[in-house]
Amino acid sequence: QQSGATVFKLPDLGEGLTEAEVLEWKVSVGDTVAVDQIIVEVETAKAAVDVPIPVAGTVTELYAEPGAVVDVGSPLIAVTAVESAPAESPAAERYREEERAGSGNVLVGYGTSGSRRSRRRAAKRPPAQAGPPSREEVPRVISPVVRRLAKDHGIDVAAVAPTGPGGVILRRDVEKAIAAAAPAADAPREEIREEIREEAGAVRVPLKGVRRATAEKLSRSRREIPDATTWVDVDATRLVKLKRKIQEADPDAGVGMLALFAAVCLTGLRRFPELNAYVDAERQEIVRLPRVHLGFAAQTDRGLVVPVVRDAHEMTLAELAAALRERTEQAREGRLAPGDLTGGTFTLNNYGVFGVDGSTPIINHPEAAMLGVGRIADKPWAHKGKVRLRKVTQLSFTFDHRVCDGGVAGGFLRFVADCVERPEVLVTHR
Predict the structure, then answer these.
(1) Active-site entry in 313, 365, 401, 429
(2) Which domains, and CATH codes, for the chain?
(3) Which one of 21, 99, 311, 403 has the fewest beta carbons within 10 angstroms of its own beta carbon?
(4) Cα–Cα distance for residue pair 350/307, rounded to 1 Å
(5) Is this model's pTM higher than 0.85 or not?
(6) What is the pLDDT of residues 159-213, one digit of tens each?
């Protein structure tokens, strides 16, 4: 608090997010706010999010201008308490307990509707002297943001001296350890910067929000996943005719090529379920998943995003088409929640919409595979002993070589190609 005001900090937004950009303030200095009122819209690396406040009172200060990037746990807004309130609300008390422990409440379920049992139990523990834990004690890190920060920078939390109550390791403790290890790592960076000569008229574009998250995820995928790509040209004439017949029979169903290729993916994963997986590098295990949460690439004004259709394997073709349309509209309007962009198990990339034939995409980490579809174009093709113009597309399959070898990858791609060339296979294998 400062001068009788409660300083509300940017809460933990979940999904391992560490910062957010202020898009629009919903309140101004002097306004009166109520508990759980939306005060600001921020953009994280996942999506735009409305942030509520857990206290009531009068706004005395806004700590960030629109466009500013704020770290989780940094001051966001100051509010003076309502004079008639004899004590702080339970929501405010919970917020300050978690703030002292190093993390705000996770935004999902945030507010006065209830608190987490684990945190209530933590609040009842008697305070302890700050200091490094003994060898027999396990270091306490309450905030998932702090855990992720330490892991990403290779910091052993057991070697970090905690300054939080009860021996809790706070974000500043990890940042101090990172700074202590930084000089040696930063030295070569200075030499590289000196060699770069920036020309007049160069434009610098901040790497933030969705673009920054995409860059970090793709870089991690390239570092960790030994990927390989195989591809095949297929005659999609009969699949195109099937789409036309479905649209004529049921125009309202809205079944397009994306839905048909999604159905092809799901059929292939039924035949090759080992590809619906990821690698747990820490345990050195391949984790095969029972449910298919299908991600698909969607181009938006904010960049390329990968919305996820959950439990796609349980959907009919019409349900799948409707879910893909809904996710696409939400992506383009910026209405996707962080959870709508995470948790995918397999990705479909229809780069043919950009008018290109082929690609070797980067796998959407930590998934094990991705199917790519090129444009469908008229090309000469041997059909029934004659060369004719047919609707031809190229399918590419990028896979994690730790999960499968070329035999499985080739088998999956060939089966998918058969589904495209003979759509009746979709019916017999669903």
Answers:
(1) 401
(2) 5-124 (2.40.50.100), 127-194 (4.10.320.10), 209-428 (3.30.559.10)
(3) 311
(4) 13
(5) no
(6) 888 887 667 787 788 888 888 876 554 445 444 445 556 678 888 888 877 778 7
